[in-house]
Amino acid sequence: MALLELDGLTRRFGGIVAVDGVTMRVAAGEVRAVIGPNGAGKSTLFNLITGVTTPTSGTVRFDEHALTGLSAYSVCQRGVSRTFQITALFPEMTARENVRLSAQARHARRWLPLGGRNVFADAETRADAALERLGLIHVAHRPAGLLSHGDQRLLEVAMALAQRPRLLLLDEPTQGLSVEETEQAVETLSALLADGSMTVLLVEHDMEVVFRLAHMITVLHRGAVIADGAPDEVRANEDVQRAYLGGLA
Amino acid sequence: MRILAVVVCVLALAPAGLPPYAMTLLTEALILGLFAMSLDLMVGYTRLLSFGHAAAYGLGAYAAGNLLLHTSIPLVFTILLAALCSGVVAIGVAWVCTLASGVSFSMLTLAFAQLLYAVAFKWTAVTGASDGLAGIPRSPGPFGITFFEGRAGFYYLVLACLVAAFIFCRSLVRSPFGAVLRGIRENEAKTLSLGYNTRRYKIAVVAISFTLGGLAGALYAPFAGFTNTELLFWLFSGQVLIMVIVGGTGTLIGPIIGAAFFMLVSNLLSSWTDSWALFFGAIFILFVLFAPQGIWGLATRWRSLSSTG
After folding, report:
1. Theoretical Cys-Cys bridge with B58: which of A16, A191, B102, B231, CB 3.0 to 4.6 Å?
2. Total structural domains within chain B
3. Would you call A88 and B175 a contact, using CB atoms and an 8 Å cutoff?
4. What residue numbers bound the domain in which B43 lies?
5. What span, in angstroms and rounded, lies between the C-alpha atoms of B227 and A129?
6. A89 at the B interface (CB within 8 A)?
7. Is position B288 within any domain?
8. Which of B268, B263, B257, B266 is nearest to B291 (CA)?
9. Contacts of B198 in chain A (CB under 8 A)
10. Alpha carbons A91 and B134: distance in angstroms, whole number
11. CA of B189 vs chain A CAs: smallest distance (Å)
12. What fold is seen in the domain A1-79+165-249?
C-alpha cells in the first residue's frame, strides 16, 4: 500500500488547468522526484497535497486517510512536512530557534502559555540533532536572516526534518544556489536519504540533482503526468525528451 | 528581575511622599500603563495592529461601573469579573476580525470599537448614553475590608494589578505559546505550515490582551467614579497605540513607560497650550522617524553600549 495516493487531482485557476488529473503513488521509503518544465504545475501539486490550495476535483490520501479539504496545519500534524520554493524562515530568530519552533509543533503541549521549560528542552534536543545532520550546528546561534542563501535552504530542510515527518516534501531545495553550493547541498541531502528510512517527494529543476537523489521520477507537462518510472526509463522516454527539447504539441 | 523589585519598592513608597494630586496622576498613569502593556501583546509580540483597543478598556469600565452601581460585589472581585467580561467578548470579536489579516484586520478592530461606541450612545439603561455612568462607588469587602476605598489603598490595588499582569505577560511571551506568537509575527504562513493553527493562537492572544485591557478599564471606573463614551472612542485607541510605539513595542515595560510619558507630557503641554495634541503628534513623528524602537529600546541600547565600553 502506497503512503501517498493522488487520484485524478485537478486544479483550475479560471480557464487555466494548473494540475490536470494527476494520479500518482509514493511508496513508503521511496524518494520520488516530480520534474517538468516551468509552469508544469509542480508547485501547485505541492500546494494541493499540503492543503494550501483546495483541489477542483480529485483526492489526496495519506496513509489511507483523506487529506483533501484539510487545512495546512492539520496536514502537517498528520506527518507531512514541507519546504518552500522561496525560502520561508523566521529571519530575526536564530537558526536554532527556527528549528526549535518547528520541533515544538510536534509536542503535545506546544501551546503551553506559562512555563514550558520541558517543551523547549525537548524541542531543542530535536532541533540540535537536525542541525547536526545538515551540518548547520556551527551557525545555530546566528539569526536566520543573516545566513548564506545555501545555509538558509538547508535550514528549511532541518526545520522539516526536526518534525520527524512521515512524508517530506522538498520544493526545489537547490533553487538559487551556486554550482558549489548545489554540490554541497546535494551531498548533504544524499547522505541524509542514504539509509532509506525517509519517504520524500521532491520538486527539482536541476536534472543532475534529480538523477542523484531520486529512485523514481514523475514527469509533469502542462499539469498532466506524461511519464512515471525509474530514472533510466524516464531518461529514455521519447515524450519526455520532446517535452523538454521541443515542446509537446 | 532585581531592577523590577527596586522599581516596585519605590512605587510602593510613593503614597508616603507624594501630594494627593500627584498620587491621582500616578494612579492613572499605572492604569494606562496596564492598558498599553495589554496592547503590546498584540502589536509588539504578534504584529496584530489593533486600532480599536479602546473597546477593551470601555468594556471593562462599563462592566465594572454597572457591577459596582447595581450589585454589592466587592471591588476586588468586580474588577476581575469585568476583565473577564471584556475577554469573553473579545473571543467573538477576534473570531470575526481574524477572518482578515493585515490592514483589513486593523480596520475590523476599528469598526468593532466604533460599533461599541455607537451602542454606548444608544443603550441608555446600561451605559447612561452621553451622560455616562456617574457616582461609581468603590464597594467594600470581602470580610469588611475597606482598605481599597482610600486614595492610597486604591493605588496599591492598581499597583498590584499592574505587577501581577506584568509578571503574567512576561511568562506568557517566554512560554511555548509566546514562541508561536513570535513565529506568527515573523512569518505567519510558515508558522501555519509547521502545523500551528495560527488563527486559534491569534484569537487567544486577542482574548488575553482584551482581558488585561479590560482590567485596566475596570480599575478606571472606580478610580474616576464615572465612565463616559470617550473611553470607547477611536481617539483613545489611537492614543494607546502611540503610548505603545513611543514606549517601545515588544518590550512590555516600554509601553508602561510610554503611558507615563504620555500622561506627563500631555499634562505639561495642556497647562501651557490648548493645542497640546499637535505637539504630542510631533513628538510621535520624531520617535517613529528617529527612534522606532521607542524609549525603552533607546534605554537598553544605551545600556548595552555603555557596558561594552
Report:
1. B231
2. 1
3. no
4. 23-236
5. 57
6. yes
7. no
8. B257
9. 73
10. 51
11. 8
12. Rossmann fold (3.40.50)
